[in-house]
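Known limitations

Structure tokens in this collection are predictions and should be treated as such. Users comparing against experimental data should check residue numbering before alignment. To illustrate the layout, the record for Dephospho-CoA kinase is reproduced below. The input appears on top and the generated tokens appear beneath it.
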Amino acid sequence: MMKVGITGGIGSGKTTVCKLFELLGIPVFYADTAGKELMVHNLGVKKAVVNLFGEAAYFLDASLNRKYIADIVFKDEQKLNALNAIIHPAVKDAFLIWSEKQKTPYVLKEAALLFESKSYLDNDYNILVSSPVELRIKRVMERDQTSREKVLERIEKQLPEDEKEKLADFFILNNEELHLIPQVLKIHQQLVLLAQQK
Ligand code: ATP
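Generated tokens:
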């Protein structure tokens, strides 16, 4: 199965773009959602999370205490790295099992930190969705009802745009002038051809 990663900075529109690929029949694996699910349902992952953060990582009803974990990893980079070292291999396995079940010419894996986590290396191709930073800030402030400062804080934690551009094979520009659909269709056609040649 041909694997294609898709990413973009916060508010770039990667989820919106993924919905368009889904309309074309291409299945999308949402890595960040999968990671959150594994923390709740995968026994091995849960054990490792408790080892790292203690029993307080879960409530008595077995649901995840996200705020407790978020507060710790926000201040402690070592804990964040240790958490990623638990989640990333589990997500990678889940993606491989899922992708083998799909019947399309290629599949998409959406991940916010595709390049930062190095997981782009496992894919055949990677797509970068870009938007002007001011537009991203405006969209996220509206979507999440949050402040400019909070959005900027999250943007600063991600790899700079020019670094991502060097690593991507395909680009989608989601600004206010260009339409997304023709860009998605063109890349889809190219990917179908590449899958045939594989
Ligand atoms: P995050 O990293 O925070 O998950 P994202 O990159 O997945 O963000 P989206 O959620 O797709 O970004 O888009 C951010 C917001 O901007 C959403 O509310 C979405 O509906 C809106 N948006 C994205 N692209 C467009 C567009 N071309 N026209 C209008 N609204 C858009």
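For this record: The domain at 1-27+106-198 is CATH 3.40.50.300 (Rossmann fold). The mean pLDDT is 95. Please report discrepancies through the issue tracker.
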